[in-house]
Amino acid sequence: MSNLLVNTRDQQFILFEQLGIEKLFESEEFKDFSKDDLLMIMNEAEKLAVNVIAPTFKEGDEEGCHLKDGIVSTPKCYREPYKKFCEGGWINPMDSTDVGGQGIPAAVGFSNMELFGAANYAFMMYPGLTHGAANLIHTYGTDAQKEKYMTKLFAGEWAGTMCLTEPGAGSDVGSLRTTAKRLPDGKFLITGTKCFISAGDHDLTPNIIHPVLARIEGDPAGTKGISIFIVPKFTVNDDGSVGKRNDVNCGGIEHKMGIKGNATATLNFGEDGKCIGELLGEERAGIKIMFQMMNEARLGTGLQGLCTASAAYEHALAYAKERVQSAPVWEMKNPDAKAVTIINHPDVRKKLLWMKSHIEGLRSLLYFSAFCMDMSRVSKTEVEKAKWEGYLDLMTPVVKAYTTDKGLLICSLGMDVYGGYGYCQEYPAEQYMRDEKIATIYEGTNGIQSLDLVGRKLGQKKGANVMNLAALIQGNYTKLKTNPDLAKVASSLEEACNAWIELTMFFAQAGKSGDFLLPVLNACKYLELFGDVIIGHFLLDGAGVAFAKLEAIYDAQGATTLGKKKGLQRSDSDAAFYSGRIASAKYFANEILTTVKARCEAIKAGDKSPLEIVDEAFTC
Amino acid sequence: MNIIACVKQVPDTEAQIKVKADGSGIEDGQIKWVMNPYDEFGVEEALKLKEKNGGDVTVVCLGPARAMETIRTALAMGADKGIHICDPAFDNADAFVVGNALAAAIKTLPHDIIFCGQRAIDDDAGQVGSMIAEALNLPQLTLVTKVDFAGTSVKVIRPIEGAQLLIETSLPCVVTAQKGLNEPRYASLPGIMKAKKKPVDVKNASALGIATEAKAKVAKTIPPPARPPGKIICGDDPALKAAEVARLLREEAKAI
């Protein structure tokens, strides 16, 4: 029976059978763990997600957040689950025990967050941002700041936010206008307005700690002059006791399409000229420091893309297996034919397989990204470490943008499976789509992510990260080509990978020859191609693993004929899973990877209509 | 205070159970296993009692090697140590053998109060708690929804048809937990990690010195009959359709 959120069998497949995270246990960092421990952690996460968090999904959306008399209230049903979540130690399981974590592998931490987020992402943003803020202070704070703020944040007693955006400075963060004025005691007076602050103000915790980007008076314009400050909602005395209310006020909360349970606030700092902030890290290093949190948030948003889509898919799948409508198409001439469950209709089936294959690929991409963090931690040499960090640097914008773009499509297809009912609030399909949409926009729009990929990430270390990733993919298809059952799809991956590499070189050449507008104009398309190739790689890699396991089951059960094999796929849950994994990979290769080369060629053809058309020709 | 909580590993209520072709039991290879939900109530009550009055909680479980997961879950919830009675000789054990085995293990430990689930959701026999009490010659308080500890005695509430009984007994005693007793906690992450270091003593039948021969035997496991398909009543006139439903309920289903 599905938990209607995340396929935990697939989670385990990726972690243990595909990535082989048990190899981490050989390292000093993870030697205290066993597979059984991790399975138990994953099991408890599932229980918490299903029984405690998921029941808040609809209610939280309906109640939403409210601002009254300056106080922001969150959905009442969030309070008890928030308490249970924090008490269970789920805010920072991946951090070291020194800061109250358990030091579990990031890959497993991601699998837990996938479950929690699938249960209710709007809810999960409160602890998620709290972790990001705490981690920032952990890396850059002074000992005193850690003691004052970090410990309580990691424990979830207080909450955190991330204050970048201003009404006139969103994608262009360098133009921010919030200022910091030096005080004689070394602290700063902060003045300015931040908007679209997720979890910006709420009643879940007695205090909220805001990391705020601002410019110290006299510092240069642009991103180089920006510093970062810790601004608490209630000031904290040096002995740790909570002092008076700081001059930070909620100017309003947004009425949004989705994630309604999360309070998106406008925050006014220093309306009365009394907002006190402490410098975090060095002066004018604000952007660099905030990037730690932004990178964490980008991966987190990628997880949102995955987990919301996963829940949408699991629901649509269960519905398609229950809902009876229309006789099958091969009985169209038989007036007495009985109606069947809609999963039997080819179009619905294909939609479901599109969703399934993308989700499995995206899940592998996300877990692999987390696994890169784990592997870089346990790497024995600098070269090895740089390789794993390089994968993650390169893929972060892809994780954020590709996962959320595809995630939204998955939610949309999920709604299609329901038909008209999916559009109605009676079923959760429409909420998944509403909750998912923001993920393509915030934490740097997907357009910005594409520019980050094309403009910065591809050229990092003179392209070494790209070469390493290409080598990983090449190793995979070279191996798979020796398997007669997978050779054809392996060739599709080879062709797609080569086309992607050629396009990458073409972009590099265009950049050198001054025609940088072509890569810029096609950055989003390029990111999508990158995503298709990389999840195609993971899906085929998974198919190789699944193939061997399935053959072993056939051998053990003496299934030599096609009929017997099909029978096993129906009766044996492992055989069903592995054959489903192979089907996902073949479908994705045949449906998507085969189009990569043509799409690369289309970009290289160099159409610049969007730039050549004059504004006035967009007639209205 | 020495508190014992007996636990059994059972198939998840969500698991799809398949009966073996020869009717000798269920296919147990691919199902998910969990702690019997009624035993969870017992563990939770044991932990609450410990938190209030001090002492320690020992989990006792009889089952195959995989049942260690269930012991670890109880330890992660906060129990202090475990005893795992594990021996292939118990493969066909009935409630009599299980009750005696658990009692024999408990006998070796100081025990003031012993919690069991009122029954296990797999075989629904509901006998083991009573068997333990009999084997240890202790009072038994069954189907309990409230426990008040008062030093040397306990008072419990046991719901009956239309009323409640307030029952008091001296310690030591056996209490079997009914739904409504409490809300079992979730294992915390620190709890899971700490559980790894807590001791679990594995014992076999000879160590306990008990007979393993069952008095009752499950002769055959028979799956429930497949549910007949539903009937859809078609037509445009709601009154006629309602009349047809009424007729079917009376004549076919004989429900009215």
Describe this structure in words.
The complex is a heterodimer of chains A (620) and B (256). Chain A has 620 residues and is an alpha+beta fold. Chain A folds into 3 domains: 8-154, Orthogonal Bundle (Butyryl-Coa Dehydrogenase, subunit A, domain 1), CATH 1.10.540.10; 160-289, Butyryl-CoA Dehydrogenase, subunit A, domain 2, CATH 2.40.110.20; 295-604, Butyryl-CoA Dehydrogenase, subunit A, domain 3 (Up-down Bundle). Helices cover 56% and strands 10% of the residues of chain A. Chain A is built from 19 helices and 12 strands. In chain A, the strands form 3 sheets. In chain A, strands 4-5-12-7-6 form a 5-stranded mixed barrel. In chain A, strands 1-2 form a two-stranded antiparallel ribbon. A two-stranded antiparallel ribbon of chain A has the order 8-9. In chain A, strand 1 and strand 2 (71-73) form a beta hairpin. The longest helix of chain A is centred in the middle third of the chain and has 37 residues, at 286-322. With 256 residues, chain B is of the alpha/beta class. Chain B has 2 domains: 2-208, 3-Layer(aba) Sandwich (Rossmann fold), CATH 3.40.50; 226-256, no CATH class. Chain B is built from 7 helices and 12 strands. Chain B has helices at residues 37-53, 68-77, 95-107, 128-136, 189-195, 205-208, 238-251; strands at 2-7, 9-11, 33-35, 56-62, 81-85, 113-117, 140-144, 146-150, 153-160, 163-170, 173-177, 200-203. The model of chain B has no long low-confidence stretch (mean pLDDT 94).
